[in-house]
Amino acid sequence: MLSSSTLTDTREHSILNDGSKIVRCDLVPWTRLSAPGLEGISYKILNFDEDRGYMVLVNTFAPKARFAPHKHLAQVEVFMLEGSFFYDNGKVFANDYMAEAGGVTHAPATDEGALMLTILHGPLQILNEEGNVAATVGIDEMYELARANNAVAHLRRKYHRATSSPT
C-alpha cells in the first residue's frame, strides 16, 4: 500500500518516473517585469510550452499598482489566490476564476495587491498613450527576464525561437 512515508521527500524540483513535474515554488525567485507600464508585477514561471504558446505562472500585483493599457492576443485564465484587481469591466476577488477572451484590451489596477495563478495562452501587447503597440511580452521575453534573474533552473527549454538553437 502506498503511503506518504514510502515516498522520497527531496524538497527539490522533480521530474517523476511517470513524466510528471513538481516545481517547488519557494525555490523559484520572483522576477519583476520591466516593460514600461507593467511595473509592480512580479512572477514565477511554473511551466510553459513553446509549441502551443502557453505559459503557467504565479504572479503578484503590488498594492496600489496601476498598469498601462495592454491587449491580450490570446485567452488568459486567472485564479485569484489573494487580493483582487479591477478594470473597466469588473473586479476579480480572492477565490474567483476568470477566463478573459483573446483580443481584450484593458488597464487593470489593484488597491490591496494580488496573488494569482495565471495561464497565458499567448503574448500581450503594451499600448502607448496613442494606442499603438509599444512592446510585446510573451514567452521569450518573460523567460529571458527570468533567466537573467536565475529563476529558470526548474524549466527545460527546447529551443530559443530567436536563435533556433537549444538554450
UniProtKB/TrEMBL annotation:
All residue ranges annotated as the ChrR-like cupin domain in the record: 21-124
UniProt cross-references to InterPro entries, sorted A to Z: ChrR-like_cupin_dom, RmlC-like_jellyroll, RmlC_Cupin_sf
SUPFAM superfamilies: RmlC-like cupins
Short name of any one Pfam family annotated for the protein: Cupin_7
Xref: Gene3D superfamilies: Jelly Rolls
Organism superkingdom: Bacteria
Name recorded for this polypeptide: ChrR-like cupin domain-containing protein
Species per Swiss-Prot/TrEMBL record: Chroococcidiopsis cubana SAG 39.79
